[in-house]
Sequence to fold (1008 residues):
Amino acid sequence: MQGAYSLKQSDPLATSLSQITGPAHIPYNDSRWQQILLHYEKLVHLHNLGLTPPLSSTKEEEDVVASACRQCAKYSATSSNLAALSLHVARMIRDLQSGLDVYTTESKATGDIDETSPQKSQNGYSKSVGKSSVRDRISLIGKARVTCGSINLLRILSHETIVQACCLKVDASAEGESNSSTSALECDTDYVLTESFTYRSRTEVDGNTNAQDAAMEIISSTMAFLSSIGCIIQQGKDADILSIPEMYDTIVHILSLLLVLLSTQLYQPMISSAELATDGRQSSQFFLQKWMQYSNWQRAEQHKSKEEHMRQQQAQNLGQENMGELHNEPLLFLYSCLHWLVDRPSPPRRSIASHFVDLPKSVAKQMTNMVIAPDGMYESHNIVMASVPHGQEKVVPNTASSARTPAQLSDSSLGKSADIDAPATAIELGTDDAVNLSSPGHVSGDVTSWNAPSNLLSHPIRSILLLSSTFFLLPIRLVRLAFNLLGHARYRAIMGGDNTYHMKNIADGDRLILQQLQAQCETKSGWNKTNNILWLSDSPVADLGSALVLILSNNCRSGAPNPFRAELASLSDNRWAQESTTDQSSNGSSLFPPSPSIDDTMLTLSINFESLFRAFGCVVHTEVGALLLYTLLLSSPIFAESVAAKSDLDTVVMPLLRSLYFSTSTTHTDPKSSPKSGLLSQLPLLTTSNRPFRSQSQLYVILILLLIFSQDPCFGKDSFRRVRVSIQTVKWYKERQIKEASLGSMILLVLLRAITFNLNRLQDGFLLSNCCAVLLNLSPHISDLHEYVAHRLVSVTTSCFKRYATLLDENRGQTEVEGDLSTALGMHGETCRTLLTLIKHSIRRKCLEKNIHLVYALLLEQRDIQKIYCFASLGDVSSIYALIRKANDIIQDNGDGMSADQTLGVLKAHLKELKSYEGVVSDELSVASDASDLGNLTFTYEEEADPEVFFVPYVWDMCIGTLTTTTMEWSRNKIQVFPLNEEIREPLPQNSSDNGDTVAHENTPDVV
Fold:
């Protein structure tokens, strides 16, 4: 690991890297492949930062990995060496899969030994079987170690090759090389990648060069391996496999490799499959198309043999013995990813993945001042927990650091040669080796002098670096993210201005850290071009698996069938199959043969819907969880029906509301910048640095999910009448302590906040239309409205109306075109009409008694409400006006000068009289018929004709900016599938004031 970090040109591994990435062809059976792959302990920790060496640097100082990547990208199409490496990796993955199958088979044999068997030893199992199992486990661990290193090497080299292949045409056009010696074929991405991943032997056999498709070999071997994992999960043995650090790391590296191979889409302009079909062009997504082709072929072969297998099963009663021949690899891949989503297996101790999980948490605790909400999660979008923390994993405040200082390290964790001049920290890794990490830049000088003037790096950074089991520059990316994104106090001192003085007074070891930090912060690195957050994962396999499911299922929606989307469409609840199995086993006297339903669960994608629903409740607050829930709802009708029938939808709705709440805050960055008087002109414009959300697309997905839920009438009724939320579930709401309220009241409260935020800061018509659609879907069912929500509904309505009146005057009295949300006038007019509709529905005769707080709120704001009566463009509000007059008459008849509680008491005592105001709906009409009289208020969500245009770029944006921000290298400067920060248009400035008519409610400036 020390060698992986401080790799020099004189190192044997550097020599091997230079050879396999150079222009000379190295045959597949050459011994040099074995030599480099035996460096697996270094290969597994290699990372490419892509740093360009300075002109003054010597060859010895040049970044070995970056140089090898550039060479590979340049020569791989002609040398076939990258294809040869791919074939070796594919062979090793298949060998590992074979060892895995043997190990699980032996484990089953060990567990199936008869307790009364004379072969059973005193230890509880047969000695021969036990020895075999131990031997197979040791062999499996050894194969996993070697495979892990080779996969990481292939991932690094493949990424640079893909980047260069995708950018060849763009670079050639920019440099005017189209008319030069560079041919059009050499600039074709598919051609370059085809040549790079096709192994051509230099020895001809019968006139052929024996070309081999290495890309398809990689895809087929990884899919076969993951399908074996799926089978192991179905057998209930995955816990044993994932408890092996090397196996967990191998799965993570395989998923990372697949994500990199799909990045051909990341570095090219977005072209959907529908656009390709319309234009008659071929897709340039090299690996995506091969993966789809392989999966479609595999599904077709599986379905062909299904009928024959069922006949054999019934005739020979083979049970599941031959199921291995019928593996539906796309199905098992999806099953594994969904299972990981439900179980979220944590990486075992001593695994590299465990290091990836622990280190970001240490950064969040030690280097940031982000507020942790009472529910145990961070309040800022800059730090996101991948899953809701459980009771025993609740996040503690920043003062309680989990990192150990060197004084707290036990003697057993120190290297044998530890001394004051060259301290060493031995960290246990997944290889069971104690590795000396006393490399330059990691620990230098006296470790007891944390605050010495010569050390620029503070104590938290050093303790984070000491926590690192491998120093492969992951700490550099994390520290850099914390400095730049999370506002560490020392950021300016280290990264900005003239650092000459500091660089003269710091230790040599720290100098290297700072130089690489500065290199990462350079504009040419492209770091700031993507919206990056600190992602606190608890299960890397679950996160990466979910990302791959999203990419595969949201691509190729037109033309050839998408095999992954087809499998999701057949998703079923396996609880029914389990109940059917139980019934059959208990009915031993049945005259009918055993049903093949047990085997059908292996042939169709099925999972426990209740467990899946609960899992979404823990992850839907994240962008990954919300988008995956959306994907399943749209692709699986059975799962969508199951969710619609749930009576506890607050499990997923409340996390969505929490995310929407913090994403619409105007004080998340600097409380001092919030307006004091509530004037629009004082609200700063939103930029990528001060907006309270990472991506605006996240807000779209949240509101789309709420719209999908609200379009079911049962959801509206249940949300106001049956589902109650308590103070324990709304700890994150700051403006008012809400002890108990209906789920519908909380939805209204958060949507009102989102609407005001949108009108003030975003002015997004799509966002507003979805907010209004959700509110109108809920409006026929509003009942038992919380007191605070009732006041907010009326106050936001009056504030919006004031702004609408001002805009109308500026427009010389010309009203907006109804439905036009492209102007501020149209957006405010639509908001007023929506909120007034909510009020009218809430004061119906059947609802008036339960919404008495709304009547009182109308009385408080009656002066402004009565002004609305004169604006015909806002609709008929005569019923509201009549109710206010009736309530005033009742109060005047009972005396003036009453308190709020007394006024409410009078209104409740005269409800019968209050219900008789003019324009009220008849008692005979039900809520449903009342809604029908006002028109069809059910708004349903329908996807665009070409949904790939929105979802594919968003998925990639999410993967780059959240899941892999600190764990994988991406060439951010060359991303084309989604707009980079410098290309995002900022919102137009709001020059006009509202003459002080806006009202700031509570402590938030969410005014309109």
Notes: Residues 127-174 form the longest helix (48 residues). The beta strands are 198-199, 212-213, 383-385, 426-428, 434-436, 534-536, 572-573, 606-607, 724-726, 740-742. The first strand starts at residue 198 and ends at 199.
